Amino acid sequence: MATAARSYNDAIDALNSLQTPFAVIEARRKAGIRPDAASVREMRGYLARIGYSSQDLDRLNMVHVAGTKGKGSTCAFVDSILSRYQQQGRRPHKLGLFTSPHLIAVRERIRINSAPISEALFAKYFFQVWDRLEAHPAIAADADADAVAPGTKPIYARYLTLLSYHVFLSEGVDAAVYETGIGGEYDATNVVDRPVATGISTLGIDHVFVLGPAVETIAWHKAGIMKPGCPAFTVEQVAAAAQVLQDRAAEKGLALTVLDIDPRLAGVRIRPDAAFQKRNATLAVALAETALKRLDPAFSPDPQALPREFVDGLEQVVWRGRCEVKEEDTIIWHVDGAHTVDSLKMAARWFVGECAARDSAGSRVLVFNQQGRVEAVDFLDGLCDAVKRADPAGKGFEHVIFCTNVTYAATGYKRDFVNHQHDPADIAKMTMQRVFAERWSALDPAANVMLIPTIEEAIDMARKLAGKEGAPKVQALITGSLHLVGGALGILEGADAL
What is the pTM of this model? Predict the structure, then answer.
């Protein structure tokens, strides 16, 4: 079949076939099989099979960001700053951004000049990569290509990473911001040998099966993106993580710069106005300055004040699904993807602060899910406690809804949301949600706790809890996984991509 005949939906269906089934994931977990150095060798092999070497990636002038909390926000800040220069006809002339996961459409992960690539462009390049992997191109003689069997393809997230390289190189991108997926050392993005700069945002406990249960092992993985001869930056870290980062920097023969909050941010409207976001902005400023010095020899940072382009980039950044407020006639939605203990506490404090700033606020509703992560039940304690502590009267949520990540009541998942990595039986039985409900009922017996099968029905229920027009508006917080947040935004806005 000709490439032109294959649509975006065809591409998404083919991509979904690359997901690792739940049963395989469980078998690997039980066997203790984790990503290792072979994962990066394989990515280099796939890169060779589609016609590129790691040296080709140098043309992207990559800014590479890892971390537990704030890496996505940091990438969004860098992209927003650099886009101000791009819009003025200065370098970068074409700007790429690669992030994960997507909120509504897979193509959101691969952006050019801050916009998701079109469905047509996604399909075109998707099948070019697909066909090259099946056709065994001549460059397969490259030594790296021997790391993968002819005709094979990488799994879902790695395929998208491979696709991003092909898109950006084909489209003439001359600066790209890359967010790691999980970790750093063995991440699919870690095949670039000479990034313009690397940044490590705040570290914490997450993805413990892959990265280990301690912040030291997590820091070891994240530090893997640092490269000799390439400027490396981080922000204030807990002592154990900070030491590991410095040790790994020393091993690689580079100096790691630890950044205090940039005093030039005084007077810049960072949202939310919190220390954690100012740390992300500080890291982004250092990364953007370093990238611009590479791209434009005439660029020289001002140690006393940020240029207008930086201020505008920081203040006008658009990063969907994080600290968003959407108002309807009878309900105000607060939407914030948060998937760690600390980020959920921050989401809770942000939510209560937003509610307190309003003269009249109605009852509070929580919509939450975090699918397939058994440790997620322990996230609830901090979320519940943070809301009560931040509330002057010590009140929690009056209504708490636990749902799955299934999008629609009638049709199930949107194509871009299909996920084979979770046990379908657990989703159907709402196994995880029942565990959540039991824990919340113990934490706050006064709360009205509900189990609702889909995101669409959870949103409908929250609206039903709202009073008539003119009554104090219900304050709803949608938080947890970005899959939940993305599905919710898609329903609230009727949007196909963000």
Answer: 0.89
